[in-house]
Amino acid sequence: MIRIDGQPILTAAEMRAAEDAVIASGVSVETLMDRAGTAIAGAVRRLAGANDVLILCGPGNNGGDGYVAARVLAEMGVSVRVAALSEPKTDAAKSARAGWSGPVETLAAAKPAPILVDALFGTGLTRPLDSSPVHRGSTSPAEAGAQLGNAIEHPAGSPNWTPASAGEVSVIRRLHALVKAAQLSIAVDLPSGLATDSGKALSEPPVFNLTLALGAVKPAHLLQPAARYCGQIRLLDIGVPTVGQAEVLKTPILPSPGPDSHKYTRGMVAVIAGSMSGASDLAALAAMRAGAGYVTLVGDSEGPPHALVRTPFSDAALANDRIGALVIGPGLGRDADARARLDAALTAGRPLVIDGDALRLLDPDRIAALDRPVILTPHAGEFDALFGKSDADKITRARNAAVRANAVVVFKGADTVIVTPDGDVRIAQGASDWLSTAGTGDVLAGVIGAMLAAKLDPLDAACAGVWLHGDAARRLGPAFIADDLAEALRSARASL
Prior knowledge:
The protein is of the alpha/beta class. The protein folds into two domains: 12-245, Rossmann fold (3-Layer(aba) Sandwich); 268-494, Ribokinase (UDP-N-acetylmuramoyl-L-alanine:D-glutamate ligase, 3-Layer(aba) Sandwich), CATH 3.40.1190.20. The chain is built from 15 helices and 19 strands.
């Protein structure tokens, strides 16, 4: 099992293409399935101990992986049972089913086990499972499969669909019950019921303890709401080379000051204050704690820390050639004075981090016209205000926005997506839910400003800032405030 930090992220189509390339080289689908099932069995064996294992197999290749895993686990001496939703429908899955010599129970009749493995659907699902009934009295997987096939072919609301009766239970409800009864629940590739590329929950699956990603990380492992159902995510190598423009955010490599370092070589950050000076104070403090050598707050503000240089707002204050990054937006306001300060920042010729209110005073064309590095850090509301609403998935929206604004976009949230105008994507693993408090976005803007001032490439600066921000939050645990988060950046930076 491999940690997913820095690993490529592939869509369902990209993963199929990668597998097809391996098959074209002479490796059979059955061989790939055997690799996947063997890898799953090895992971389950490590975690199951002496406990019984129940593997739920679907009709496709995900189910085929489950049959192989069951066979290999049995060969290892593990007590393993199989419950199927239907008979296999692909040739490779049929071959895997033939290799399993034990009985096959129906999903509806299967009794719980301490270790539950979901190999029902995985990636590629396009329809909800909520309305897919299986009869409690089904006597064979074929009967259950016929019921499921009808439900997926004629989904809820269509003329041929009928709701489950008192003698039936939906696939997703049955999955919930078996996961609830298990001590450890493991999903193969994805929990059944999730859309691979968009991260949507087509049906609401149970929350799994662990998801084993086969061959590559998928968008749904990281995008919400799907990611919340995956639990811990580990990657299994199945011998399929994977490359792509999207990757999981990884721990940054940041330089430490050397004997010849001084405050300006470490980077000078200027933060423009506005009508809510507390927000700009937080951004400035965060830049300092993240490692900037010199931070100046341009505008009206007072109080500690004393190491923060405060200066009245003026065009001359922004003309200092030593400024490596200019942060504007936290607490800026949206009045005439705020607009004047934003105009001054845009004409100052410095690399920019644009956040908060500033994002609501701009349009993408104006940002795209700037001839310097620009990093935008919108949350969902600011993103909609700047780029418009859309039903597209978060990665697609962020990519389109980065092209329109010709800037690095940090689309914040529990599933922060970072994108360049060239289409490179980095997605952070799940952030602390306690970041949902006022001021944490201001802290992130300051951290990214410090990274940009240290002369990191804009993508690297954004990634390092998001990683430090998330690590600081994890260190704090529950019920912190933005002030605590800014202080905790010191420990996060020291960990590198």
